[in-house]
Amino acid sequence: MKKLFSLLTLAFVLVFSSCIEQNYPVWEGLVVEFQxxxxxAPVAGQVYPRITVANTVGTVNLRVNLVGKHRPSxxxxxxxxxxxxxxxxxxxxxxxxxxxxIPAGSSFGTLTVNVLNTGRIGGSxxxxxxxxxxxxxxxxxxxxxxxxxITR
Length: 152
What we know:
CATH architecture: Sandwich
Number of strands: 10
Largest sheet: 5 strands, mixed
CATH topology: Immunoglobulin-like
Strand order of the largest sheet: 5-7-3-1-9
Mean pLDDT: 92
Number of domains: 1
Number of helices: 2
């Protein structure tokens, strides 16, 4: 009798627990973020990381992630130089076009900054970049800034 009761209990549990509907929330947003901001710890007292490079480095490439569904066409993403964290001068210390492209069907784009060799020795300047996005793609509130420190 105990075996029969155990078998019936097991069958009852299997029948009524095997088809539980799971309604997991699905995020439908579309944002861009800096990979370095995701991977690196922020600078003390700030919400963004700092990457230090020499002024002889030439080019700095920063990976930008598209978080959301792949897009059927290229996305032109805008970024700007944040005044509050920047001491570098455009055209003298760096050249940055202000846009980057995430190709159609891709999750990644590359933001390219050309660091100019000023020939100066000693000290450093900072360049704080902030992703803006476009009409359809926003920016991640937590990972939209990266600072580049250019040492001389």
